[in-house]
Amino acid sequence: MSQGVQGFQGTSRYVPRRLLGAGGMGAVYEVDDRTTGGRVALKMMLDEDAGRLLRFKHEFRVMAELHHPNLVRLFDLGQHEGQWFFTMELVHGQDLIEVLRLEDAAGMGVSGGSGFAELSLENVGTQPLTVLSHVNAGEIHLDWFTLHLRDSKGATRDLRMVAARDKAGRVKVTLEPGKSLQHRVDIQHWAVRPINGNAQLAAGSYELRATYEVEPGEPVWSGKLEAGPATLTIAK
Protein backbone atom coordinates (compact mmCIF):
# COMPACT_ATOMS: atom_id res chain seq x y z
CA MET A 1 0.00 0.00 0.00
CA SER A 2 1.42 3.39 -1.00
CA GLN A 3 2.12 6.16 1.45
CA GLY A 4 -0.93 8.34 1.98
CA VAL A 5 -3.47 5.54 1.50
CA GLN A 6 -3.74 4.64 5.19
CA GLY A 7 -6.96 6.69 5.63
CA PHE A 8 -8.85 4.15 3.48
CA GLN A 9 -8.07 0.51 4.18
CA GLY A 10 -10.16 -0.86 1.34
CA THR A 11 -13.11 -3.24 1.08
CA SER A 12 -13.62 -6.75 -0.20
CA ARG A 13 -14.11 -5.22 -3.65
CA TYR A 14 -11.93 -2.09 -3.71
CA VAL A 15 -8.18 -2.21 -3.02
CA PRO A 16 -6.46 1.19 -2.52
CA ARG A 17 -3.34 2.01 -4.55
CA ARG A 18 -2.66 5.68 -3.79
CA LEU A 19 -4.20 8.91 -2.55
CA LEU A 20 -5.00 11.26 -5.43
CA GLY A 21 -6.13 14.29 -3.42
CA ALA A 22 -8.20 15.53 -0.51
CA GLY A 23 -10.46 18.49 0.26
CA GLY A 24 -12.83 19.75 2.90
CA MET A 25 -15.47 17.08 2.31
CA GLY A 26 -13.61 14.00 1.11
CA ALA A 27 -10.50 12.26 -0.12
CA VAL A 28 -10.10 10.61 -3.53
CA TYR A 29 -8.13 7.38 -4.03
CA GLU A 30 -7.06 5.32 -7.00
CA VAL A 31 -8.32 1.78 -6.33
CA ASP A 32 -8.39 -1.62 -7.99
CA ASP A 33 -11.88 -3.01 -8.58
CA ARG A 34 -11.70 -6.77 -7.92
CA THR A 35 -15.09 -7.34 -9.55
CA THR A 36 -14.26 -5.80 -12.93
CA GLY A 37 -10.48 -6.11 -12.87
CA GLY A 38 -10.10 -2.42 -13.70
CA ARG A 39 -9.14 0.70 -11.80
CA VAL A 40 -11.48 3.45 -10.66
CA ALA A 41 -11.39 6.55 -8.51
CA LEU A 42 -13.04 6.30 -5.09
CA LYS A 43 -14.19 9.39 -3.16
CA MET A 44 -14.60 8.83 0.58
CA MET A 45 -16.20 11.12 3.15
CA LEU A 46 -13.82 12.39 5.81
CA ASP A 47 -16.35 12.68 8.63
CA GLU A 48 -19.82 11.51 9.63
CA ASP A 49 -21.60 14.88 9.83
CA ALA A 50 -25.25 14.39 8.85
CA GLY A 51 -25.41 17.54 6.75
CA ARG A 52 -22.27 16.65 4.82
CA LEU A 53 -23.52 13.12 4.27
CA LEU A 54 -26.71 14.53 2.74
CA ARG A 55 -24.66 16.75 0.39
CA PHE A 56 -22.36 13.83 -0.42
CA LYS A 57 -25.29 11.63 -1.49
CA HIS A 58 -26.87 14.53 -3.38
CA GLU A 59 -23.60 15.08 -5.29
CA PHE A 60 -23.58 11.43 -6.35
CA ARG A 61 -27.23 11.36 -7.44
CA VAL A 62 -26.94 14.57 -9.47
CA MET A 63 -23.68 13.59 -11.17
CA ALA A 64 -24.85 10.03 -11.85
CA GLU A 65 -27.71 11.39 -13.97
CA LEU A 66 -25.40 13.53 -16.14
CA HIS A 67 -23.85 12.04 -19.27
CA HIS A 68 -21.32 14.04 -21.25
CA PRO A 69 -17.92 13.23 -22.84
CA ASN A 70 -16.27 15.88 -20.64
CA LEU A 71 -17.72 14.53 -17.38
CA VAL A 72 -16.51 11.45 -15.50
CA ARG A 73 -18.94 8.54 -15.12
CA LEU A 74 -20.11 7.59 -11.63
CA PHE A 75 -20.57 3.93 -10.73
CA ASP A 76 -21.27 2.86 -7.15
CA LEU A 77 -22.47 4.51 -3.91
CA GLY A 78 -21.95 2.61 -0.67
CA GLN A 79 -20.44 2.43 2.77
CA HIS A 80 -17.92 0.24 4.54
CA GLU A 81 -17.51 0.14 8.30
CA GLY A 82 -19.37 3.44 8.60
CA GLN A 83 -17.42 5.23 5.86
CA TRP A 84 -19.48 6.45 2.91
CA PHE A 85 -17.94 6.49 -0.55
CA PHE A 86 -18.72 6.49 -4.23
CA THR A 87 -16.69 5.32 -7.20
CA MET A 88 -16.19 6.99 -10.54
CA GLU A 89 -14.21 6.80 -13.75
CA LEU A 90 -10.46 7.20 -13.24
CA VAL A 91 -9.08 9.83 -15.61
CA HIS A 92 -5.32 10.15 -16.05
CA GLY A 93 -3.99 13.59 -16.76
CA GLN A 94 -2.11 16.56 -15.45
CA ASP A 95 -2.96 18.72 -12.46
CA LEU A 96 -4.78 21.82 -13.77
CA ILE A 97 -2.67 24.22 -11.71
CA GLU A 98 0.55 22.69 -13.02
CA VAL A 99 -0.73 22.87 -16.59
CA LEU A 100 -1.57 26.54 -16.23
CA ARG A 101 1.92 27.23 -14.91
CA LEU A 102 3.59 25.68 -17.96
CA GLU A 103 4.10 27.57 -21.19
CA ASP A 104 5.40 24.52 -23.06
CA ALA A 105 3.07 21.66 -22.22
CA ALA A 106 1.81 18.69 -24.21
CA GLY A 107 -1.16 16.43 -23.58
CA MET A 108 -2.03 13.07 -25.04
CA GLY A 109 -5.33 11.31 -25.60
CA VAL A 110 -6.30 7.78 -26.62
CA SER A 111 -9.59 6.12 -27.51
CA GLY A 112 -10.39 2.65 -28.75
CA GLY A 113 -12.77 1.15 -31.27
CA SER A 114 -13.20 -2.01 -33.30
CA GLY A 115 -9.68 -2.88 -34.42
CA PHE A 116 -8.41 0.69 -34.27
CA ALA A 117 -6.93 3.10 -31.72
CA GLU A 118 -7.20 6.86 -32.06
CA LEU A 119 -4.33 8.91 -30.61
CA SER A 120 -3.84 12.64 -30.29
CA LEU A 121 -1.00 14.89 -29.20
CA GLU A 122 -2.12 18.38 -28.18
CA ASN A 123 -0.42 21.63 -27.23
CA VAL A 124 -2.07 22.40 -23.89
CA GLY A 125 0.34 25.23 -23.08
CA THR A 126 0.24 28.93 -23.86
CA GLN A 127 3.06 29.09 -26.44
CA PRO A 128 3.77 27.32 -29.77
CA LEU A 129 5.12 23.82 -29.12
CA THR A 130 7.52 21.90 -31.37
CA VAL A 131 7.12 18.12 -31.26
CA LEU A 132 8.87 15.20 -32.93
CA SER A 133 6.85 13.19 -35.43
CA HIS A 134 7.25 11.30 -38.71
CA VAL A 135 6.15 11.76 -42.29
CA ASN A 136 4.74 8.79 -44.18
CA ALA A 137 3.39 9.24 -47.70
CA GLY A 138 3.09 12.97 -47.11
CA GLU A 139 1.04 12.63 -43.91
CA ILE A 140 2.25 13.60 -40.44
CA HIS A 141 1.84 10.82 -37.89
CA LEU A 142 2.57 10.26 -34.21
CA ASP A 143 5.08 7.45 -34.09
CA TRP A 144 6.95 7.99 -30.84
CA PHE A 145 4.43 6.00 -28.87
CA THR A 146 3.74 2.55 -27.46
CA LEU A 147 0.32 0.93 -27.04
CA HIS A 148 -0.18 -1.19 -23.92
CA LEU A 149 -2.89 -3.86 -24.14
CA ARG A 150 -4.39 -6.06 -21.43
CA ASP A 151 -6.95 -8.75 -22.19
CA SER A 152 -9.81 -9.99 -20.00
CA LYS A 153 -7.53 -12.60 -18.38
CA GLY A 154 -4.90 -10.04 -17.41
CA ALA A 155 -2.36 -10.95 -20.08
CA THR A 156 -0.47 -7.93 -21.43
CA ARG A 157 1.19 -7.03 -24.69
CA ASP A 158 2.97 -3.89 -25.92
CA LEU A 159 2.93 -2.66 -29.50
CA ARG A 160 5.81 -0.33 -30.39
CA MET A 161 6.03 1.86 -33.49
CA VAL A 162 9.06 4.10 -33.13
CA ALA A 163 11.73 1.48 -33.97
CA ALA A 164 9.94 0.61 -37.20
CA ARG A 165 10.65 4.05 -38.63
CA ASP A 166 13.88 5.21 -40.22
CA LYS A 167 15.49 8.18 -38.49
CA ALA A 168 15.58 10.05 -41.79
CA GLY A 169 11.81 10.26 -41.63
CA ARG A 170 11.76 12.34 -38.47
CA VAL A 171 10.17 15.75 -38.74
CA LYS A 172 9.54 18.58 -36.32
CA VAL A 173 6.00 19.88 -36.20
CA THR A 174 5.03 23.14 -34.51
CA LEU A 175 1.63 23.14 -32.82
CA GLU A 176 -0.07 26.37 -31.88
CA PRO A 177 -1.81 26.44 -28.46
CA GLY A 178 -4.92 24.27 -28.56
CA LYS A 179 -3.90 22.49 -31.78
CA SER A 180 -3.25 18.75 -32.03
CA LEU A 181 -1.95 15.94 -34.23
CA GLN A 182 -4.21 12.95 -34.77
CA HIS A 183 -3.25 9.39 -35.65
CA ARG A 184 -5.37 6.30 -36.29
CA VAL A 185 -3.65 2.97 -35.62
CA ASP A 186 -4.69 -0.31 -37.27
CA ILE A 187 -3.95 -2.63 -34.34
CA GLN A 188 -3.59 -5.91 -36.23
CA HIS A 189 -1.43 -4.21 -38.86
CA TRP A 190 1.08 -3.32 -36.15
CA ALA A 191 0.69 -6.54 -34.16
CA VAL A 192 2.14 -8.60 -37.01
CA ARG A 193 5.20 -6.37 -37.50
CA PRO A 194 8.54 -8.05 -36.59
CA ILE A 195 9.17 -5.51 -33.84
CA ASN A 196 5.94 -6.63 -32.14
CA GLY A 197 6.27 -10.40 -32.45
CA ASN A 198 4.65 -11.22 -35.82
CA ALA A 199 1.47 -12.43 -34.13
CA GLN A 200 -2.10 -11.21 -34.45
CA LEU A 201 -4.16 -10.41 -31.40
CA ALA A 202 -6.86 -12.87 -30.39
CA ALA A 203 -10.47 -11.77 -30.70
CA GLY A 204 -11.90 -10.13 -27.62
CA SER A 205 -11.95 -6.95 -25.56
CA TYR A 206 -8.77 -5.23 -24.36
CA GLU A 207 -7.92 -2.44 -21.96
CA LEU A 208 -5.87 0.07 -23.93
CA ARG A 209 -3.30 2.55 -22.64
CA ALA A 210 -0.70 4.56 -24.54
CA THR A 211 2.57 6.37 -23.92
CA TYR A 212 4.36 8.97 -26.01
CA GLU A 213 8.03 9.34 -25.15
CA VAL A 214 10.80 11.46 -26.63
CA GLU A 215 14.26 11.48 -25.08
CA PRO A 216 16.06 14.81 -24.54
CA GLY A 217 18.69 15.84 -27.05
CA GLU A 218 16.84 17.71 -29.79
CA PRO A 219 15.23 21.17 -29.77
CA VAL A 220 11.73 19.69 -29.42
CA TRP A 221 9.39 18.78 -26.59
CA SER A 222 10.82 15.84 -24.65
CA GLY A 223 9.42 13.70 -21.87
CA LYS A 224 6.83 11.00 -21.38
CA LEU A 225 3.05 11.26 -21.64
CA GLU A 226 0.51 8.62 -20.68
CA ALA A 227 -3.12 8.24 -21.73
CA GLY A 228 -5.94 5.78 -21.06
CA PRO A 229 -7.49 3.52 -20.20
CA ALA A 230 -9.79 2.99 -23.15
CA THR A 231 -11.51 -0.13 -24.52
CA LEU A 232 -10.37 -1.82 -27.71
CA THR A 233 -12.31 -4.61 -29.44
CA ILE A 234 -10.80 -7.17 -31.80
CA ALA A 235 -13.41 -8.96 -33.90
CA LYS A 236 -13.26 -12.65 -34.75
Describe the structure.
A five-stranded antiparallel beta sheet has the order 1-2-3-5-4, with helices on one face. The protein has helices at residues 50-64, 96-101, 187-191, and strands at residues 14-22, 26-33, 39-45, 74-80, 83-89, 106-112, 116-123, 129-136, 139-141, 145-151, 156-160, 170-175, 180-186, 204-214, 223-234. β1 (14-22) and β2 form a beta hairpin. It has 236 residues and is mainly beta.
Question: Which descriptors apply to this entry?
Answer:
236 residues, mainly beta, Phosphorylase Kinase, domain 1, Immunoglobulin-like, 2 domains, five-stranded antiparallel sheet, globular, disordered N terminus
In short:
With 236 residues, the protein is mainly beta.
Distance between the termini: 39 Å
Report the β-strand fraction as a percent range.
over 45%
Query: Unreliable segments (pLDDT under 50, ≥5 consecutive)?
Result: 1-5
In the CATH hierarchy, the third-tier topology of the largest domain is known as: Immunoglobulin-like
> What's the Cα radius of gyration?
20 Å
Q: How many DSSP H or I helices?
A: 3
| Name of the level-1 CATH class of the largest domain | Mainly Beta
Helical percent range?
10-25%
